[in-house]
Write a structure and sequence with these properties.
single chain, Rossmann fold, six-stranded mixed sheet
C-alpha cells in the first residue's frame, strides 16, 4: 500500500515557549456539547453555586462525556452559542465568585480493576484532545471477548502548522504521557505501545526515548514529517503497517489510538481526581507578536485569552485548531471548548475564487486515502449517492490536502464533508 502525503511549511514559532497558566476568567460559557456524540443535559439550575470540578451536565448515552465547571461561582444563565459547525449549542454560563474553590468531589479515584479504570476515565470527562473530541471511555471501552487490541498507539505527530501544544506536553509532561500509557496497558491488558512523534521534534523524541528506555514493550517511533501523518488511519499504517478498512474502527486491526495530551490527562486525573476543566493551547498567527502556549480554562472566551498575547492589529480571520483542519470562529467572544488545541489569528488573509478544474491530478496524488477528489466533487454535484459510495467517500479524513494543492482553489475538502452527510441521509432513506 502506498500512502500519499504532502509537505507543509511549518511555523512552530511557539515550540520553545513554556506553557503559561492563565488566570481563571471572570465568566465561563461552557457548552454541553464538548465532544462527538450525545449533547449533555444540564444537571444544575440557574442560581446554583458550583465549584471547580463539579459536574454541570451529563448524559446516559454511551457516546458522551460529562461536563464540569471550570471556575467556581454562580450559574446565571442557559444560553445557545453558535458552534463552528453552524449549529446552536446549548451552553451554561457561570459567573465567577473569585474564590477558585475546588469541589469536594475532586479526589483521586480508587482503581482495582478494568471496570474501575473505565469508570474513572468516563467520570473525568476525558475526550480526544487532538481535536476530534471522541469520548475516551468509549474508545477504551471495547469488549475484550469480541476484539482485543495488541497495540496502543500514542499520537504525538502534531503535523499541522503552528500548533505546538502536544509537543510542549512531551517536553513538560513526558512522564505523565508515559504513566498514562502504562495505566492503559495495565488495566486494558494491551501488551505493546508505540509513541509516534514526527522527526521534526527531536527533543520530544529524545526525551520520550529516555523515559521509555527501561520498558521494552514501549517503542518511540520517529515518523517522517509529512501531512496528514497524525490522521488516525495514516498513523496506524506508519507505525504498524496495518490498514483500517472503510467503515471500520482502529480496533478492527488490533489498535487503539490516543492523543498524547489525552494520555497525560488520564495520568493526572488518576493521581489528582481533577476532571477535564482546562487544557493547553497554542496562540499564534501573523498578528501575534509573541506566539505562546497557554493553559486555559474551558469556557474562557477567545477575547480574554488573546488579552495575554501581544497582537499587531485586528484579526480578519480566527481559526480554532490548525489551518488545515481547524474551523473559523465567528467572533472573539467565542468560548473555548475541550477540543480546541489552538487559536490562530491572522490579518490580510487571502480570499480565493475557485476556477474550473484543469485535470492536473494533484489532488489525487495528495490524498492519503487514495481517493479521487475531483470525481467525488462531480458525484456530489450530481447528487449521485451510488457513485459517492462506489468512490469510497467515507474514507475521507477531512485533512484538506486536496484543497491545499489544488491550483484552481476548488473547495474539494468541503465538498467531501457535504458529500458524506448527503450519503448518510440517502442511506437512512434506503436510497
Amino acid at each position: 500500500m502506498t500512502v500519499h502525503k504532502i509537505r507543509l511549511p511549518h511555523f512552530k514559532h511557539s515550540a520553545e515557549s513554556e506553557t503559561i497558566a492563565l488566570p481563571l476568567p471572570s465568566r465561563a460559557v461552557i457548552s454541553t456539547a464538548q465532544h462527538l456524540g450525545a449533547v449533555c443535559t444540564p444537571t444544575v439550575n440557574i442560581g446554583d453555586k458550583v465549584k471547580i470540578g463539579d459536574v454541570i451536565a451529563d448524559s446516559d448515552a454511551v457516546m458522551s462525556a460529562p461536563v464540569h465547571a471550570s471556575i467556581s461561582g454562580t450559574v446565571t444563565a442557559f444560553t445557545e452559542v453558535l458552534h463552528i459547525s453552524g449549529r446552536n449549542m446549548p451552553s451554561i454560563v457561570i459567573e465567577s465568585d473569585g474564590k477558585n474553590e475546588i469541589s469536594d468531589a475532586v479526589k483521586p479515584p480508587v482503581i482495582n480493576s478494568r471496570e474501575d479504570f473505565l469508570a474513572a476515565v468516563r467520570k473525568s470527562g476525558s475526550i480526544g484532545l487532538g481535536g476530534a473530541g471522541f469520548p475516551t471511555s468509549m474508545k477504551l471501552g471495547f469488549d475484550p471477548k469480541e476484539k482485543h487490541p495488541d497495540k496502543l498507539i500514542i499520537n504525538g505527530a502534531e503535523c499541522e502548522p503552528y500548533i505546538t501544544s502536544d509537543y510542549r506536553c512531551f517536553i513538560e509532561e513526558g512522564e505523565k504521557v508515559l504513566d498514562g500509557a502504562l495505566l492503559m496497558m495495565k488495566y486494558l491488558d494491551i501488551p505493546e505501545c508505540v509513541i509516534g512523534i514526527e522527526d521534526n521534534k527531536p527533543k520530544a523524541i529524545e526525551k520520550m526515548r529516555g523515559l521509555c528506555a527501561s520498558y521494552p514493550n514501549i517503542t518511540v517511533c520517529a515518523l517522517k514529517s509529512s501531512y496528514p501523518q497524525g490522521a488516525e488511519k495514516t498513523l496506524i499504517y506508519s507505525t504498524t503497517g496495518r490498514v483500517v478498512k472503510e467503515g471500520q474502527l482502529p480496533i478492527s486491526c488490533g489498535c487503539i489510538v490516543i492523543n498524547s495530551s489525552t494520555c497525560a490527562f488520564i495520568s493526572d486525573y488518576i493521581k489528582t481526581g481533577m476532571p477535564l476543566v482546562s487544557r493547553r493551547i497554542t496562540v499564534d498567527g501573523n498578528i501575534v507578536k509573541k506566539p505562546a502556549n497557554f493553559k486555559v480554562a474551558v469556557g474562557m472566551s477567545i477575547a480574554e485569552i488573546v488579552e495575554h498575547a501581544e497582537l499587531d492589529g485586528e484579526p480578519d480571520r480566527i481559526i480554532l485548531g490548525g489551518p488545515m483542519m481547524g474551523a473559523c470562529a465567528f467572533e472573539l467572544d467565542y468560548p473555548l471548548s475541550k477540543t480546541n488545541n489552538a487559536v490562530l489569528l491572522f490579518k490580510d488573509s487571502p480570499i480565493y475564487s475557485p476556477s474550473s478544474c484543469i485535470r492536473c491530478g494533484r489532488c489525487v496524488r495528495a490524498c492519503s486515502m487514495g481517493l479521487m477528489p475531483t470525481a467525488l466533487e462531480t458525484a456530489f454535484d450530481m447528487r449521485d449517492a451510488k457513485a459517492l459510495s462506489r468512490l469510497n467517500v467515507n474514507l475521507c479524513v477531512n485533512c484538506g490536502a486536496c484543497s491545499y494543492v489544488c491550483p484552481a482553489k476548488r473547495n474539494l475538502a468541503e465538498k467531501n464533508q457535504l458529500a458524506k452527510a448527503f450519503l448518510r441521509e440517502q442511506t437512512k432513506k434506503g436510497v
